[in-house]
Amino acid sequence: MAEQRFRVGIIGLQPGRSWAARAHVPALRALPEDYEIVGVANSSLASAQAAAEACGIPRAFADVDALVASPDIDIVAVTVKVPHHHALVKAAIEAGKHVYCEWPLGNGLAEAEEMAALARQRGVLGVVGTQARVAPEIEYLGRLVADGFVGEVLSTTLTAWGRGWGASIDSTATGAYLLDRANGATMLTIPLGHTLAALRDVLGDVAELSAVLANRRRSVLARDTGAMLPMTAHDQVLVSGLLRSGASVSIHYRGGPARDRGLDWEINGTEGDIRVTGPSGHTQMVQLSLEGARGDGEAMRPLEIPASYRSGWPADVVPGNVARLYARMAADLREGTRTAPSFDDAVQVHRLIAAIEKAAESGGRAAPGA
């Protein structure tokens, strides 16, 4: 007898352009034995009806309250802008629903801690969308490091371009939100946040750090209108510190599109080295590649990902990684395991980001969680 499928309601679906349309809908439909998309709620009933019709979803809810209260919904997917996460996630949890919330979980550490505590209190599963952690390349990288490919890790160095937060944006309507630091959706929290979640999985926690956050660009050109828009989000993020293992860590994220490699992450050890590369610093949504070398004098060579890491998943990176995360969520709900990134995991990444902000503000060193 087939297991019952989990019924999902999506908040924030705009056909053809939203993250939910690009990632969540195809990811869920790639897992037909685990999930069915039951309904959608947007800012208006008319918007929800248009999205439901365009995406072939059975039901459009009048509003979020109706969706989270529906007995036909098991899981609420929150895919809207960061400032709305807190209220929507709380409403879903208080209605007894499990939640998949996009990263960042909250607009700052305090919101994330509150949502994680509420999920524990109500006994529901909260999963956060740090899907770089389940990318095939990151999972294989973790295996290589754990199996001793590089020996004892001595240091790791990461440089990347944020793709956004450069000299211009495509559209005022979709891009201006990312320019305002108060919205909690910055280069520090989004591409670097996703990458920090993956880095912690592979190399362990950061013990202490110092940081610089800089605004070298104070205004950005909106190409659709020609207007110059103010930017308060940092376009330069520099972090240096020590991992709990004692290995040193150095990170530099900078705003704008890459000229060449948009991501260059090196792990140096006593027995060898591994390099992770990609077209931008958004490790959660770009095709990554690995290369490595062992011993003195050996040249770096491509490290092929075993086919088992990709088989059975959507070939497109974006829905593929999100599908892997949803599959873990389904397994956790059925088996009582905790393999998907949880709200508690998200809090740990938020604490690391808060430590970066604290160190940059004070000019001293900070310890995440201290």
TrEMBL record:
Domain Gfo/Idh/MocA-like oxidoreductase N-terminal: 6-128
Domain Gal80p-like C-terminal: 136-278
SUPFAM superfamilies, alphabetized: Glyceraldehyde-3-phosphate dehydrogenase-like, C-terminal domain, NAD(P)-binding Rossmann-fold domains
This protein's name: Dehydrogenase
InterPro entries: Gal80p-like_C, Gfo/Idh/MocA-like_OxRdtase_N, Gfo/Idh/MocA_oxidoreduct, NAD(P)-bd_dom_sf
A UniProt-annotated Pfam family: GFO_IDH_MocA
